[in-house]
Design brief:
By secondary structure, the protein is an alpha+beta fold. The protein has five helices and seven strands.
């Protein structure tokens, strides 16, 4: 198809005033360069005037096509670029596809966010429960009106116990004993401070009362002796300079 054939129908539409857009601009550019098409346009406009006067007249577009073809049969042909594809026709489809992709992306992000929120809420609930249990434990351990009971094996006598509180910087010692069995006549228990280095140091003698209780408070001791342990032996009432075996009770520092 040559250039004149391409513009034949556009000339008729242009003469009618219904050609729009890029087709109109392309035709007007061609008319500026093609005398044959300009003559055909004038003839078409004349035909349009005749049609306006008589509804039964000839069909100008078909006659115009034939006249145009005959007029330009001898003129050199010019290559005409193919009509450009109207890309914007695809714009609604592209927009819909893009919106669908965005919708899927945000739906996935929303699902992930909701799952994360649920996990955080669960973790927070578990942490609050742990904190509440810790508070209950501390309250039970520190309350002043809690009942404190020591359990022992059934049907066995209470075991002898001794507690020492010692401050080496002041050479201060307090010893409290309970459930101690009685000692033989002319005998007594003697408390010993066993230092980290050196020989045991006498820390006072005592005899338990009828209930097995006894105390030793601030016995004479050398200053700044670091204690490794404390021991109790049975000695003469006046005490001994060195422990007499066996050791009946022994305890190391905590």
């Amino acid at each position: 198809m040559n250039g004149h054939e391409q513009f034949a129908d556009d000339l008729a539409l242009y003469a009618l005033g219904t050609l729009e857009g890029e087709e109109r601009l392309g035709l007007e550019k061609h008319l500026a360069e093609c005398p044959a098409c300009r003559r055909e346009l004038e003839a078409l406009r004349g035909d349009m005037s005749l049609m306006a006067l008589s509804a039964g007249g000839p069909r100008p577009p078909a006659r115009s096509r034939q006249r145009l073809m005959e007029a330009v049969a001898q003129e050199p042909r010019q290559a005409v670029a193919p009509a450009r594809r109207r890309w914007w026709i695809l714009l609604p489809s592209l927009t819909a596809a893009a919106l669908a992709v965005v919708a899927v992306f945000f739906w996935q992000e929303n699902s992930t966010l909701q799952q994360r929120i649920a996990d955080l809420q669960k973790e927070s609930s578990e942490q609050r429960a742990e904190l509440e249990r810790a508070r209950e434990i501390v309250a039970t351990l520190t309350t002043t009106d809690a009942m404190r009971v020591t359990l022992v094996a059934a049907k066995t006598p209470p075991q002898p116990q001794g507690k020492v509180m010692y401050v080496k910087d002041r050479a201060s010692l307090i010893f409290i004993a309970s459930n101690m069995p009685a000692v033989p006549p002319q005998k007594a228990y003697e408390l010993w401070l066993i230092p980290v280095q050196g020989t045991p140091v006498p820390a006072g003698t005592f005899k338990p009362d009828a209930h097995g209780s006894a105390t030793v408070i601030h016995p004479p001791l050398p200053n700044n002796v670091e204690a490794k342990a404390f021991a109790i032996t049975v000695e003469p009432e006046a005490g001994s300079a060195t422990p007499t075996m066996p050791i009946v009770m022994l305890g190391a520092g905590e």
